[in-house]
Design goal:
By secondary structure, this protein is of the alpha+beta class. It is built from 9 helices and 24 strands. A hairpin with a 4-residue loop joins strand 9 and strand 10. The longest helix has 41 residues.
Length: 526
Amino acid sequence: MHASRTVKIILRIISVCLVLMAVIVLGCQLMAKKSIANYLDTKLPPHIQLDYKDIDVNVLMGTAKLHTIKLDIGKRDSVRHTAVQIEALEVVGLGYWHFLVNNKVQVENLNIETPKFTHYLKEQQTDTAQEDNDHIALLKTIQIGKIKVSNGAITLLKRDSDSTAMKLDSVHIEIEDVKTDVELINSKIPVTYASLNFTGESLYVDLGAYEVLSIAKVDVNEGNLSVSDLKLKSKYNKTELSWHLHKEHDYINLEIPKVHFKAIDFGYKNEKLWVRTGPAKLTGPNLEMYRDKLLPDDWVRKKLYSKALRELPIQIEVPEIAIEDGHIVYSERVNRKTEPGKIVFAKVDAKILNVQNLSDKKEDTQVKAKALLMNQAPITLNWSFDVQKESDAFTASGTVKNFNSKGLNSFLDSNLRVRAEGEVQELYFTISGDAKSSVGDMKMKYEDFEFSVLKKDRSGINKLLTTIGKIFVNDGSNTDESGYRYGGITAERDPTKSFFNYLWLNVSSGLTSTILGNGENERRKK
């Protein structure tokens, strides 16, 4: 009887304890929920407005979940610049011991469901004094085992028109071992992390008045970047673009089915962003460019690629960019009465080595390319330069083989008012130059080569000028013992034109010297 009464007493004590514990847990639940709600309602800065539908708190599991969140963030001058809508935000596995004893916020998982992020871009001029005051006073170290973002969307708007500057849908992000602290939170990159996986679809970027960029899918996995169906296009067709222009500007239509960069890494050194990658590959790029030469010239000075790389606001280092199975079409309109002439480069394969602008790197940037000119003649180009040389010195060499000159007549008719006949069996050139001028050599082996000069309206052959031209043009019969004719190259760069215009001036100089000159190898004579 005594034992039975003891058991009953123990059971009652246990029951009371359980009830007491339940009351305590319930009280803690209510207190925690109230504390979180009170903090969110009263402790946020006045330029941050937060609304939410409900809060679920589980003290025992260390979880909290907010539902249907709306967050508006404005500058301190009350100008709205960011809005966020989130279906649910869940904190899982909050470590109470670390929070109370180690002055650390430690969370196992942070799950963000269907966030819609909208941001207004800054005005051209920013108040640096205001930016300097936006210092975040973080009191505790924050560690999160994993951040998971599901089915998000990002939209950047132009403040002056509310039009879309950038949009990305179907955003999924997983970041592991995320950490920030008092020092990190106000640095250029405010967090550290162990790994990052990111995917997004239907990227749209407005590049200005005339072009847009779109990408079907972006995938970042353990530092490797893959891009599917990249398209860079003019907003207007060729005719419409000319209506909108007040000076020359290229129509562009670029499509790249696959882009892949390995081992992307980035950071800050001496307050300057650096980006470093492994090898990259562009598969199947297709580029069409068109220029309306009837428009006024663009007199803006153009940088050579060495100077453009040298003056980038960031440091970059890419060991290799491979281009596989590309296709390039370039055309110009120089006369309203004729169709624009085209130059075609098919089956373009290239390697661009050492794309970098690091002062301690001594490797030259190199381009090694090959293609089929007008879909028929093998052509190569080798080009190199040292980014750090202020003179923008470069060397280039190239070859063309087995080219029937009739293939260029659609371009020559429209652009130069001439037609060509004959076959260029071999053409070689070498050039060395800088930002001002260049010199070089050319040798050619060709047969039955002649030009016909067209009338001004291109309705037929100008027989007089054609006859005079034949007197000066060597048809390829006057050669050395190996069948070659030689010529020199001299060119002055027009700084308002691109590098490829400069390259054409060099090749044109060599062709003129080889075909109209004495054809002798001046170096051998010396």
